[in-house]
Amino acid sequence: MRVLVIGGAGYIGSHTARALRDHRHEVVIYDNLSTGHEFLAKGFDLIVGDIADAAKLRTALSRVDSVVHFAAHAYVGESVINPRKYFQNNVEAALTLLNTAMDAGVRRFVFSSTCAVYGTPDKVPMTEDAVRRPINPYGISKLFFENALESYDRAYGLRFAILRYFNAAGADESGEIGEVHDPESHLIPLALAATRADGPVLRIFGTDYPTKDGTCIRDYIHVNDLAEAHVLALHHLESGEPSLALNLGTGRGHSVLEILKAVEKITGSKVNWVQGPRRPGDPPALVADPTRAQQLLKWVATRSLDDIVATAWKWMQHSQATV
Predict the structure, then answer these.
(1) How far apart are CA 189 and CA 184, in angstroms?
(2) 145-172: per-residue pLDDT in tens?
(3) Is the pLDDT of residue 323 over 70?
């Protein structure tokens, strides 16, 4: 396959681009580099462009037969403060991408979605049959695009894979690429940074949730396990199988305090942290039931929490010279 990886200079997109190449697919990366980094796309054909730019998209899409779409704003807290930014990019510009892909004859589309489309779940672990009831603009914007894909499937014969993943974490085992966000908002890199004597103090948002230790519980999944799932989803569509929506997670939840313990175990240093208030839009627990992905894609997350933290730590130790 010839695959256009939209947002392929970002965190998950860059790992997926490598996984696709490892499976001998031809990969073109399309990224506006607003949050992505050119060095993460090293070794790939990179087109610098925005998904709102239909003309540039047409040129890129003429070279491929499949799309994997990662280019979205993805900070829950920011979406609450600035929803306009999220609807402009994650909905309006994303529809430009979808329509341009359809006009170019591309009929395979893998969408990087999120467990945020479910909102606060009625039960955990969460299956794909859970009600999609997002509680923040980020989740709402992702759900809108899911609905668009479903509608285009019925009307135009588009085949899609919606991959709702939980908390992406870790880095490539090679240490060559990993997580680079500015500002960083993800727990594990923040906790790793807080083990350094000169590092920033980690603020934990809420210690009074109705969970086993009062902190939020999340399903942390290694970024390379996620990348492999995207490859398998494309293979599923290429074989003529119908569209699908899947949860991607380990099926195991870890609290914030459990993550800190894992970080301290891997680094041998204490995490310097302080208690803060809850953030708006944060459910107490989000854990996937990945059974359907295991059944339909023959996919399973193989890397442990220790693997996640160890690869993230390796990346952090070696990334300063790269970035």
Answers:
(1) 8
(2) 999 999 999 999 999 999 999 999 999 9
(3) no
Domain covering 187-217+251-288+299-318 assigned CATH 1.10.1740.10 in the classification: no
Closest CA to 111 of 122, 98, 129, 127: 98
* 253-284 pLDDT per residue, tens: 999 999 999 999 999 999 999 999 998 768 89
**Which amino acids are annotated catalytic?**
138
CA atoms within 13 A on the CB side of 204: 23
Q: How far apart are the first and last CA of the chain?
A: 31
Q: Determine which helix (DSSP H) or strand (DSSP E) holds 151, and give its type and residue range.
A: helix 137-156
Q: What are phi and psi of 160, to 5 degrees?
A: -130, 160
Kindly list the domain boundaries of the chain, sorted by start residue: 2-169+222-248, 187-217+251-288+299-318
Alpha-carbon span 169 to 115, nearest angstrom: 15
Token pair, residue 102, equals 């359809």
**For 239-270, where are the alpha helices, taking DSSP H only?**
256-267
**Measured distance CA(93)–CA(97) in Å, rounded:** 7
What count of other Cβ atoms lies within 10 Å of the Cβ of residue 305? Answer: 23
- Of 71, 72, 48, which is closest to residue 60 (Cα–Cα)? 48
Q: Which CATH superfamily is domain 2-169+222-248 in?
A: NAD(P)-binding Rossmann-like Domain (3.40.50.720)
260, 195 Cβ separation under 8 angstroms: no
Contacts of 211 (CB under 8 A, 6+ apart): 217, 255, 284, 285
User: Which residues make Cβ contacts (< 8 Å) with residue 154, sequence separation at least 6?
Assistant: none
Is the pTM value of this prediction over 0.85? Answer: yes
Question: Which residues neighbour 240 within 8 Å (Cβ) at sequence distance 6 or greater?
Answer: none
Helix 11-22 / helix 223-238 crossing angle, nearest 10 deg:
60
